[in-house]
Amino acid sequence: MRIRRELVGRADETSLVEAAITDGHRLVLIDGEPGVGKTRLLEHLVERAHAAGRTVLAGSATEFERLVPFGTYVDAFTRLTDAAPSPPAEAALRALLSADKADQLDRYHTYRDIRSFLAELADDRGVVLALDDLHWADAPSLELTEFLLRRPPAAGFTLAIACRSDAVPPVVGEAVARRDPRVTRLSLAPLGEDAAALLMPPEVDPRRRRLMYRVSGGNPLFLWALLDADDRRLSELAEDRPGATLALEQTLLAVLRRELDRLSPAGRRAAHAAAVAGELASLVVISHVAELDLAGTAAAVDELCRHGLGTLAGARFTFRHPLVRAAAYDTCGAGWRVAAHARIADHLRGNDGSLALLAHHTERCAELGDERAARTLGDAGLAYLDSAPTTAVRLLREALRVLPERDDLVPYRGVLLTGLARGTGVMGSLTESRRILHEVIHLPHEVASAAVAFSSVISRMLGRLDEARALLSAQTRKAGDDGRVRAQLLSELAAVAMLRSDPGGARRHAHEALALVSKTTDPALEAAAYALLAVACLQDGDLAAARAHSRRAGWLMDSASDTALVPHVELVAPLSWSEISLNRPADAERHLARGIDLATRSGRSYAMPYLLIGQAQLRTRAGRLAEAIEIAEHAASASEYIHSSETLAMARCVLLLPVLWRHGVDPAMTLADSLTAAGPGSAWWQAIAYVSVARVRLAGRTGGDHPQPPVLTRDTEVERLAVQSIRAGADGDVGTALERSAAAVEAAGDLPYQLGIAYDARARALSGHDDLPGAVAAARIAAERFGEGGAVVERGVAHQLLATVHGRMGDVASSHAEIGRAKAAYRESGADWLAGQLTRVERRLAASGQRHVARETALTKRELQVAELISQGLTNREVAEQLQVSQKTVETHVTRIFSKFDVRSRVALARRLASRGDRPASG
Ligand SMILES: Nc1ncnc2c1ncn2[C@@H]1O[C@H](COP(=O)(O)OP(=O)(O)OP(=O)(O)O)[C@@H](O)[C@H]1O
Ligand SMILES: [Mg+2]
C-alpha cells in the first residue's frame, strides 16, 4: 500500500514558508521528532522557492556517511550542477571535492570560496540553500553551515534546515533564540486526526483508522509503517505508544525491521547491500556486494520497490526514508556488514572511486596489521588535514591503529604521527599535539626533525618563543651532519630569534644555515635564510646589509620552483616585510601573491595569516585602505580558525592605522584596547604594536598606556621617536619635542618612509616652537618623502599639516592649495575619517584666517613700531628709550602684539613679520 504524496495538514506551516520565501528570510528551521514530516515540508519549501524563481540548492545528510567531509554540501552542489550546470556551482563542487586531492584548499579558504560562489549564484534572484536531516551532517558541513549563518553570502540568501529537535546545532539554536524577525522556526507537531486520515488509503475501515492513529500518534512515517501491520500487532503496539524521540525511533525501527522480514532472502540481501552502499547503490554495486548475479539483483530490487521500501532512479536505488535504510543496515549482521564494506572498498579501488568514500568504507572494515587499509586511511587523513581536520585526525588515528609494527614502516608512522600532531594542533589542542610530537621525537632524526620544526611553528603561533627555542636547539644538536635538516632547524631558530628581537642571534643562526645550504642546492631554503637575515639587519639598523640580503632572497625565491618553495612558503612573509621596509613594494607584491597562492594550494593554513598580514601592511602603505582592512580581517579570521593567538594579535596590529584613517578613533581605540588586553607574545611585534597603538592614541588625543616593548630594535626607532616628539609637543614641552624629532631625522637613514615620519614630527615640533617657516620646510620634506615611499595617506597628512601652518602664517592661498592636496590623497586612499576631519580643519582655517587678517591689520601704529624694533633684536628697555615711553608701556604693547600675531617668542615674531611680504621687516 502506498501513502499519498501530496502534503496534508500543515496549513499554518505552509503559509509561514510562503512568507519566508517572499520576504527572503535568513533562516528557516524545521524541527520535530523522527518521521514527523520535516523532509516533506522542506521539499515543499524547495518547490515553492523554485516557483518563486529563486536559485535552489538542496542537499541532505545521511546517517551512515556522516564521516564523509562536506557530504551534505557535495550533495547539494552535485544536484544543482546535474540540473543546471553553472560555473560557480561547478567551481564550488571542485573546491569541496578538492579536499580529496593532495593539494587541497585549506578549510577557511573552502568556506570563503563556497560563500562567494553562493553569492554569485544568488545574483539578484536570491538563493535558497536547503539542508535536510542536518542531525546527521558531517562535522565539516556543520562548520561550513555555521560560517554561512554568521556571514550570510548575500542579501537574498535563505538557509533552510530540517533537523531533529534534539540535535539542532548550537549556532542554529542561538540564531533562533535571538528572535530575529528574519528567522522562522517551524516545530512540527504530529498530524491531527483529520489530516492523518487523509494519509490513509480510502479502503481502510474507520475502526482500524482510529487504531492506527492512536498507535502512530499522528506521526506520518509511523502511519506508513503500520499500513500493513495485522490487527493483533496494532493492538499490541497501542498498549504503549512511546513518547520520547529515542523510544519512538526504536519502535519505528522495530516496525520497519518486520517489514524487511517479509522479503524474500534475495530481496533482503539486496536491501542490506543497498543500505551499506548508500549513495553508491547502483544495480552493479548491489549485485557485487550482495553477491547476486545481475538478473537476480534486478528482481530483488524490483521486490524492494514493490514493497514501497524505495525507488529506482536510473540505475540507482534509494530508500524511501532514512529509517528504512537504518533498519536494513541494522539487520544485516555485523560480520556480513564488515565484508560488505570491504567489497565496496575493493570496488572503489578498482574503479578509481573517491578517496573520501574509499576511506569511509575502509574505516569500517580495516583489520589490525592491514597495511593497504592503513595506507588508504593514512593518505586520506593527510589529504584532509587542512580542509577537514576533525576527519583527518580520526582517519590518522585509525591508520596508526592498524598500521603493522614493522621497521620499514617507521618513517610512514612518523609521517602519520606528524600529520596527526598537525591536525590536533590546528584544531587547537596544543597539549595533545605536543604529546604526539614527543612520540615522534624518539623516532629517527629525519622524521623527528620535521616534527620539531612543526612544533616550533605551533609555539610561534602561540607566542611561546622560549619553548620553541629550547626544542629547536636540542634537536639541532641531535640532527647530526645532515646538512639540509640542520639548515632547516637553524632557519627556524633564526625566525624565532627575529621574533624575540634578537637580531644578533638571528643573524648568527641564519649565517650558520646558509653555510650548510650552499652545499645542498635548495634555493627556497636559502632564500628563507636570506630573508630572515634581511629582517635581522633591519632590526640592527644595518640598512646596507639588509638591502643586499633582501635582494638576494628575492632573487632566489623568484628562481625557486613551486615545489621547492612550498615547504618554506611562510618565509615569504619576512621577505616581503623587508621589501616593504626597504621601499620595494612591487617586489613585495609579487612575492606575497605567489606565497598566498602556494599556501592556499598546498593547504598550509598556518602560513596564511603571516602572508596576509604582510599583504595588509603593503596595502596600508599604498593607501588602499578598504583592501587593507579586508585582508587584515581575513588574517584575523584565519588566525581564529587555527587558534593562533599570536597571528591574531599581529593582524589586529596591522588593522590599527587603516581602521583609524578610514573609520575613526573609536573603532581604532577598541582595537588598541584589545591589543592592550591580549597583545602579541613576541618582543618584535610588541614593539610594532607599541608604535601603532601610540599613533592611534595621538590621533585620539587620549593618554593611557600601552605596555612598552621589552626590547627595542632599530626598525621601530624612528616611529618611536616621532611619537615621543609629537606627544611632548602636545604637552607643551617644546624642548623635548624638538630634541626627539631631531633624533628621529638622524635615525631615519635614507629610507623615504622613515624620513617622512621623522620630518613630519620635526615640522610639528617646529610649529610648536613658532618657527613657522621652519615647520613649512620640514613638512614639505615629509610630503615629498612620503610621496617617494608611496605612502599616500601619510603624504595627505603632511599636506594637511602644511595647510595648518600656512593658515597660521595668514597665507590663505597656500593653505587652500595644501588642503586640496590632502583631500585628493584621502579620497584616493579611502581615508574617510581623515577626510571628515579635514573638512572641519578647513572650516576652522577659513574662520581663523579672517581673524588673523583682521587682527594683524588692527595693529596700532605704535604697536607696529614696537613690533618692528623688537624684531630687530632690541630689548624692551632699548625700545622704551628709543620711543621715549616707559618700559612698562612697552611690555604692555609686546603682550598685545604677541597675542595678535599668535606667537610666543620674539624670534617667532621676527619670522612672522619677515614672512609678511607686504610689510618691511625693518626700517
Ligand atoms: N504532511 C504530510 N503530508 C503527506 N505526507 C507526509 C506528511 N508528512 C510526512 N509525510 C510522509 O511521511 C514520511 C515521513 O516524513 P519525513 O521523511 O518528512 O519525516 P522526517 O521528519 O524528515 O523524518 P526524519 O527525522 O527521520 O528525517 C514520508 O514518506 C513523507 O512523505
Ligand atoms: Mg527527514
TrEMBL record:
SMART domains on file: HTH_LUXR
Any one of the GO BP annotations: regulation of DNA-templated transcription
Xref: SUPFAM superfamilies: C-terminal effector domain of the bipartite response regulators (SSF46894), P-loop containing nucleoside triphosphate hydrolases (SSF52540), TPR-like (SSF48452)
GO cellular component: cytoplasm
Keyword presence, Transit peptide: no
InterPro entries noted in UniProt: AAA_16, P-loop_NTPase, Sig_transdc_resp-reg_C-effctor, TPR-like_helical_dom_sf, Tscrpt_reg_LuxR_C, WH-like_DNA-bd_sf
Residue ranges constituting the HTH luxR-type domain according to the UniProt record: 852-917
Keywords: ATP-binding, Nucleotide-binding
One GO molecular-function entry: DNA binding
This protein's record includes keyword ATP-binding: yes
Name the UniProt record assigns to this protein: HTH luxR-type domain-containing protein
Source species of the chain: Nonomuraea zeae
The organism's taxonomic lineage, starting at the top: Bacteria, Bacillati, Actinomycetota, Actinomycetes, Streptosporangiales
